[in-house]
Task: structure prediction
Amino acid sequence: MAAKGKVKIDRERCKGCHMCLEVCPTGSLEVDQSLNKKGYTPVRFKEEAAEGEKGCTACTQCALVCPEVAIEVYRAQ
Amino acid sequence: MSQTAYKKIFARPESLKDNPTHYCPGCGHSIAHRLVAECLDELGMRCQTIGVPPVGCAVLAYNYFNFDMVEAPHGRALAVATGIKRVRPDKLVLTYQGDGDLAAIGTAETIHAANRGEKITTIFINNAIYGMTGGQMAPTTTIGLEATTTPGGRDPDRDGRPIDISRMLAVAEGAVFIERCALTTVKGIRRAKKAIARAFQAQLDRLGFSLVELLSPCPTNWKLPPKAAWQWVNEEMVKTYPLGVIKDTTGYEDKK
Amino acid sequence: MPSEKMLMRGSHVVGEAAVRAGCRYYFGYPITPQNELPEYMSARLLDVGGAFIQAESEVAAINMVLGASAAGGRAMTSSSSPGVSLKQEGISYMAGMELPAVVANMMRGGPGLGNIAPSAADYFQATRGGGHGDYRTLVLAPAGCQELAELTFLAFDLADKYRNPVILLGDGLMGQVMEPVVFPDPIDPKDLPKKDWILDGCEGRPPRAIYSMLLGQQGELYQHNLHLQDKYDQITAQEQRWDTYKVDDAELIVVAYGTASRIAETAVDDLRAAGLAVGLFRPITLWPYPKKALRDLAKDGRKVAVFELSLGQMLEDVVLSVGGRSEIYFYGVPGGLIPTPAEAAEFLRSVLKGDGKVGRRVEL
Result:
């Protein structure tokens, strides 16, 4: 079953502050260890829900805290 | 299996340009920019807004905000805004200023704009340090915080105490709405947006001067990683600068 | 149509002329000897639906002018010497941002708090740019109330034409005396040419940003300074103004501006009555200085005598203009004392005689 929400992160805009990870309640985000062009380790959205998690709920908390406006949030219709 | 249709529910507001910012990772400025932009979008006021950036890290705010802006000398934003408002009284005029701009070199302009009850809104970014110039003491640097000009940490006898300009401004009858929020929790960011919206409304209703103080993290100059910097605001900075409504004579109802 | 002739005090003349020239925004701070001007504007702008603010400081006032100008209004401030010192930051910014503004300085004795008597020791401040950076402001030097009226109109026009601050340089005496004045035709601000760079909200157009900071690594600030220089070259070529009085057969040309020129003119008349061949060269624009016009007069053995209410500031521009073509002499009265025409005449006689008793010869 598809998750209620999904998130698009612009990995080149992300500056790797990782605050979105801190506030995500569903464990739907993780650090991408490969550096972006600016040398940061951006955050990426887990396309598959984590073990035992229901997946992204489109709560938008990640986007709310992102200082770079690098996150777009989508909610299932 | 059918494709699930998704609707975009969060994206960059129109009042913010698409340009990547020069702000540090974990800095509060771009969150503040986004909240201001969201409020202007929701009011439909982008094309009726004229803004004045500070001298400070946000000096290039005209590269990020998608409305008319004019530079001001350090600290003078509220005098510049006053001149703009006299010529364009029907426009929404805002200043966006840091702690040095507003409460050190610009103290007189700040107090008197508030005292005249200027129908202007000030977004006050308080990060307790001088960011742009590399971490010197700000008027709002807290006791014990080590800035580059306070070796060993700010000492009250040697360096004076942190200034609470928002509470000082509340004494002015011309100031009708002053609230302090923090940009370092989800709840704080949501509350900050409501405060900014209310401040703009007070201007549009011509009630008087409005100001929203936003406690903002400066990881680089506090020499903390973003998470620790955000925590420092939530746990330490609020002891000197408690959050909440400092003044509200608008009469607007409080929506939960 | 021009007004009827009125008897009016200099400070009021500036205010009345400004309003008639379409100025609707005045921001200022009290300082002697020009308090009558903000007082006048506080009432007069109510008549025309303008805005007046007695600002909290001179600094705030110049920045209010900056904002009003950016938003498209004809705005001015006024002050006297120490207050104009405070405005230098704002003036530099407006020059860099290419914003029009009129700044009236009714000079007083300095340096520091000085006194409240008329002096003319702000020539350097006005013409050399008292603020930082490579910029210039036009400087207009009226010599009495009628010129205060006409040059106020001109100041607003030149400020708009070149998008630059313009300094109207008067002094405490000129601000206080009452003389007959006829004002030029009034201008309705609605009839002024539309400005396509002002901030009035970005409806139907991309947003505009007005700023002077150019941090780019590709020489953006260098290019901007060259652009400003082009503008200043244009102004220098087109906007020099001066007046001459009885110079055609003069053996001695006295160079003076403002109140000093009124004193010098009387001295010239007195000496002519005694059969001495003297004349007056009176610059009206102190920047751009009418160098060539003065240089063209410095020939045929003529002497040039500079007469200032200072220790010698315009003197340097005279030296630059004249060079070695004529002997140059100087007599100055600083500190707010006003010399009499007789004192000026003594200086000029001494120069003609070459006896060195009054004033000094300027060695290059």
